[in-house]
């Protein structure tokens, strides 16, 4: 995608009626808004220039990563513009709430349900990786339901720190991500790439199957890193007795401390557990 290499050109325009605040981001609020020309409801991320010290690099990167990316399970960037003191990024709207909220509201949640959810997310991340995009901040808060219906699709949001890796040998080195979801090679300040997303997806899979983080017992980041690097994934019998061995094996393969030995998204999609052949249908809640 060659237009990814050029900086975006901002066009000043009005044309949206702003409504309620949907959420707060690092550099401003995200509003629900109506696109006046056709009445379509959208989400507008408003970023205050003053908080960026006049440097648009960060916004440009988010735009360059997202433009041209169109997938049913990824929040779409429709438009962007700026005013004297703010940038505006217009996204497809997701009103169905976060993944965890819905799981806890549901009366029943089985391994088969977990497979359905995670397969969608892995497929969306496979699409990103095939387009050389590493998300770097996959966590439950960034997985949103598009609408309130029970069969609503899940969408990946927040590409605020996502990056394009234009060739296979490209590496990233910025230390970033969210505590508890970040891969050991990022903590170690090593060069890294797409495998960091699979790590985060492994943590999310663990968490939706049992309701707690795999490293909850760690006192601090150092201890957590040591546990991660020993490839220690504890499936406490009290919470995991009803979960299949296939699920545990899948999670361990996503949480391999060596990124070269970790499953790739495409390998994960071919894993029997994520193919749905071994998952159990018993209630986990
Ligand atoms: P930041 O990059 O600053 O973390 P996000 O992109 O995560 O900003 O947006 C902040 C919050 O706004 C999100 O946690 C979510 O609650 C809400 N939000 C963001 N994008 C959308 C969207 N497309 N639809 C609905 N809510 C959204
Ligand atoms: Mg965010």
From TrEMBL:
EC number, UniProt record: 2.7.11.17
GO molecular function: ATP binding; calcium/calmodulin-dependent protein kinase activity
Kinase keyword on record: yes
Annotated residues for binding of ATP: 49
Annotated coiled-coil segments of the chain: none
Domain Protein kinase residue range list: 16-274
Keywords: ATP-binding, Kinase, Nucleotide-binding, Serine/threonine-protein kinase, Transferase
Keyword Protease in record: no
Family: Belongs to the protein kinase superfamily.
The name this protein goes by in its record: Calmodulin-dependent protein kinase cmk2
Organism: Tieghemiomyces parasiticus
